[in-house]
């Protein structure tokens, strides 16, 4: 199977090079989607060996994922953040259920979910799925499924997994340990908007 990492990035010149170098040891190709960065993210990513897709302006995380999914040939995508929080050593664990034919989507379940509002979205999405961490950005997904997804919402919290459920995907999760990159806690304003997307998906699909 051809495995490709898709890494959305916005103004991550300080960390993207190290992320690309680490991830490259676990997948066949690495694509960084530079989401309208105003710094040297694109140059540092290329310098580290990644192939780069670019947005002329900042369009958001989900749009960056769409660009990667729709423009890259692969059998399986691995997605992770550009800030170095996600340890690439878990990539084989994410890929194994897909390569073994047991799953279409594998979520990397974090032990610590930083934002309270994200925990609330997890609870709401849990009305339709037993996945404990629906907002993680660390995942492996069969490319045929990824290319079907509309990726609705303002972030992937809850909605990514719910859309995969609606498409009939087999979903599992594996535990991952994040590294010590400081993450905001409390409440994110976009999660208020995301609440209504999730609610709509639960009611109307």
TrEMBL record:
SUPFAM superfamilies referenced in this protein's UniProt entry, alphabetically: Nucleotide-diphospho-sugar transferases
Glycosyltransferase 2-like domain: residues covered: 6-115
CDD domains: DPM_DPG-synthase_like (cd04179)
InterPro entries in the record: Glyco_trans_2-like, Glycosyltransferase_2, Nucleotide-diphossugar_trans
PANTHER family noted in UniProt: RFBJ PROTEIN, UNDECAPRENYL-PHOSPHATE 4-DEOXY-4-FORMAMIDO-L-ARABINOSE TRANSFERASE-RELATED
Name of the protein described by the UniProt record: Glycosyltransferase 2-like domain-containing protein
Top-level taxonomy: Archaea, Methanobacteriati, Methanobacteriota, candidate division MSBL1
């Amino acid at each position: 199977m051809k495995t490709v990492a898709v890494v959305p990035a916005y103004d991550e010149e300080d960390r993207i090079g190290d992320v690309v170098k680490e991830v490259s040891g676990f997948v066949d190709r690495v694509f960084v989607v530079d989401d309208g960065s105003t710094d040297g993210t694109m140059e540092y990513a290329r310098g580290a060996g990644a192939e780069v897709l670019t947005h002329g302006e900042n369009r958001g995380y989900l749009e960056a994922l769409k660009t990667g999914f729709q423009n890259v040939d692969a059998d399986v995508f691995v997605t992770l953040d550009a800030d170095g929080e996600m340890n690439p050593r878990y990539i084989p664990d994410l890929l194994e259920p897909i390569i073994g034919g047991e799953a279409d989507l594998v979520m990397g379940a974090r032990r610590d979910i930083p934002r309270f509002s994200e925990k609330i979205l997890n609870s709401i999405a849990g009305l339709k799925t037993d996945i404990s961490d629906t907002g993680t950005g660390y995942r492996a997904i069969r490319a045929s499924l990824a290319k079907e997804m509309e990726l609705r919402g303002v972030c992937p919290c809850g909605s990514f997994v719910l859309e995969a459920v609606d498409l009939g995907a087999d979903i599992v999760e594996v535990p991952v340990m994040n590294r010590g990159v400081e993450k905001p806690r409390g409440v994110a304003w976009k999660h208020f908007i995301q609440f209504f997307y999730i609610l709509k998906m639960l009611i109307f699909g």
